[in-house]
Amino acid sequence: MADQPQTLTNLGLYKPPSTVRGMTDLDRDAFTQTVNVPAIRIPTNVLNKVVKSLKKVALHRPGIKRVVEEDNTDGKDNNHGDYRLLLLDPSSITSTDSFGNDEATDLKAFGVPLEIQRYELKLTYENLKSEEILRAVLPEGQDVTSGFSRVGHIAHMNLRDHQLPYRKLIGQVIIDKNPGITCVVNKTNTIDSTYRNFQMEVLAGEDNMVAKVRENGVFYEFDFSRVYWNPRLSTEHERIVSLLRRGDTVVDVFAGVGPFAVPAARRGCEILANDLNPESFRWLQHNAKLNKVDKKITSFNMDGRDFIRGPVKERLPALMKGSQKIHVVMNLPALALEFLDAFRGLLGPEPEQGLTCEDNLPQVHCYGFSKEDDPQRDVIERVEASLKTTLQGQCSVHMVRNVSPNKEMMCVSFTLPRKVLYSQHTQDSDSSEEPCPKKQKCEEPTD
Questions:
Q1: Half-sphere exposure of 296 (CA within 13 A, CB side)
Q2: What are the Cα distances from residue 13, in Å, to 6, 91, 143, 187, 425?
Q3: At 422, is the secondary structure helix, strand, or coil?
Q4: Which of 199, 214, 221, 412 has the fewest other C-beta atoms within 10 Å?
Q5: Torsion sign (Cα): 215, 221, 225, 227
Q6: Against a cut of 0.85, is the pTM above it?
Q7: How far apart are CA 403 and CA 409, in angstroms?
Q8: What is the DSSP secondary structure assignment for residue 341, as one 8-state letter?
Q9: What is the pLDDT of residues 126-144, one digit of tens each?
Q10: Using the 8-state DSSP alphabet, how is residue 350 labeled?
Q11: Residue 424 CB coordination number (10 Å)
Q12: Could you tell me the pLDDT band of residue 26, with boundaries at 50, 70 and 90?
């Protein structure tokens, strides 16, 4: 039996040459190296069956064929064409004892000798994964990340300080290793809370920021450098839209380019959508037309409080007299909880005839960040502080995602209390409200 090949740890098979350490201008040829890998000799008449049996221990590398012809330079093997070599993963197979019982049994049944050979394999830049390349280039002991958010053809990265000297190389590697990515950008400042966008630097590829995205079957187009878009919120967009029914009204206070408004309109809802950012407003209108729901969406370019105290206030009384539900979505997690105070006393004095239990109070879905140990309690307390009323037992909290260590994004859903909407009930009170005729509770349960 041939000598056992060195293990992955000793050989460093998947690690490019040490000479690439510290490279800032990408030289693809510098990553080329020749290594020895284990292989097993298989008769061609049972080749497919054996390959299937050994698929767990076979070599899997980008651009490398697992089944190769034998090296017959000495001309001694007259049966050369009757055999092939299956390359094996050196991290799984270091000797004949590395095969599992089932694998060894299958090899014996197929008449394949349990012998390991060496095969000289040429590894190039094309055969390496992006993380392997970056791990070889960046300083030893430093964090290596090849992760990014994909927005259409754009890869969006958040590089750390120690990675910045290598940012151009990192960008090119991401393009090389990810088909369809033609532009890589890095965020250079925190999100602007006014327009929810951020400055970015193009690291590699084309300087084209207009992205085309499909999310949950809906198409969007927008200038990624001038609006807010987060692909990690796809599931949350879908969750909220699933609560809606045809004929419902959706009031989207911070609509962005339409990830709630457009699919809600496609579901048959009537939409009042607003965003302060003129670019978001423009792309919102564009996406409404793109998805043929522009007649369902009335869009506004206003401050959130002005939107609530203007167009929403004007339409709310009539909507509340209808039977279809009203949903208010407030997705500006850095500030939205503070905007809830705009609903206090919004509709002025309560009409003389009073409200009945059948009145249609809005359902609010408001987002917020929390760094507290109990984020659920934190966001509820902040909602109550803005509304100046208690929501005990009248709201639900959904954890949307972990934004960063010790920072959660939460969604609080609740029925907007009538004592908040009408001016005579804007102050805290310990007294109970008068019960509605023939019914003890007016509040509809949240989802």
A1: 26
A2: 9, 9, 21, 34, 72
A3: coil
A4: 214
A5: negative
A6: no
A7: 6
A8: G
A9: 999 898 899 999 998 888 8
A10: P
A11: 10
A12: very high
